[in-house]
Give the backbone structure.
Amino acid sequence: MDEEKDRLFEEVVLPCLDALYGFGLLLTGRSSEAEDLVQDTVLRAYRFFRHYQQGTNCKAWLFTIMKHIFLNQATQRAREVLCPYQSGESDVLWEDLMNQAQGSSDLRHEVFSKDIQKALGLLPSSFRLVVVLKDVEGFSYDEIAKLLDCPMGTVMSRLSRGRNLLRQFLQAYGDQSAEKHMERQNERRHAS
Amino acid sequence: MILDCQTMGRLLHPYLDGELSAREALDIQAHLERCPDCGALYRNEKLFLDLLKGSLPVPVAPDGLRQRARKVVEAAGQEKQSRKRFRLMAVPSLAFAVVALLVVGILALEKKPLQDLVDVAVNTHQGYLNDNLPLDIKSNDPVQVVRWFEKRVNFPISLGQEPVKNLRLRGGRLVEFQGENAVFLAYEMGQHRLSLLMTASEGVNLSGAEGFNLEQTRFYQSANHGFQTLSWTQEGLAYVIVSEKQELNKQACMICHGSNRQQLIPKDFYDKEI
């Protein structure tokens, strides 16, 4: 019976390690801490595996365990990352961010000379968390709301704002790339 | 319900995320068919979200982490085993009682014969996988598929919303069941292929090796010719999902039955920014 349970555990839990590590990185921001968090999560999941209902979303169950461990280990930091409202969500800050994304050449240079990962890193952490949970991990709005203990409306709002901000980054990146492309074309023409 | 363009704009991302009810999704599709501006907006947003989802970095755990996780689990398993052995030695009569209860419990499980609809579903699924039973209509558009079937079956069909996360409609074919036409729909979930057989539930008595309830609906699961089936009846229709894994069947099933998320969407969400 235990062998069967262990086999099932390996079958449903271990494939989620990459996603768990990603979530750990989002929460802690540090690779070593994320790894420790994954290890603690896997251990607790094993001990409480009898509570896992087969056929339900195992990844959501594991993410919830990780969130609780993180909350217990780093209460203050957890509040900063997970609390329902935080800086970046007020309208004033939101407008600032949008203006920065649309206009600031420094930010444009910083963001678009690198890649979308950098752009993602510039989002307020609450937006980044929701965008990743939805667009990378594929959770539903309801699952994200339950995981983050916040209303579904907040999830939808953060997702919409996070995506719009990324859209602005990508748009500006595209504009800048086009400008550079034109410059290169002109240089080639002059050279020939 | 007739949607206006403003409501359409507000529902577009939830629609693209597969978060709307089947009825709302159909309303959106109807609006998109007749409104070129919203159609263009839809295509742009879909392109953007596809680009975003395809570009966002997917996390990869460091090499050693998987090994560390396995070691942690193995150590915990050994610890548990040793505790268990101690308990069994200390209280043999209790252990015997537990084993006896388990045996009685297993013997008491429901064991009903599989019914025809489940057999038909499995045979059709197998035939479809082997390319012996091709689809009569190939389309991932639920509206188009529903329209095709509406003229050919004697029961109403309402398909789940599209797009739905991880579940892609491939098309359908007509299947004969008890002298009437039944609907066979083929789906893909990642690399796996699933099918759904549906017919009027009158005269159909579903059962399986094991049953469970979810949101007031009784589901039956069984293994049949190497496939896993999940069957249930609801609102006058009988359904059977077939795939190689019960987990896939349940995931597909949870899309409609496992969430009350629509009820959780705050009514005023679309009217204000939070």
Notes: The radius of gyration of chain A is 21 Å.
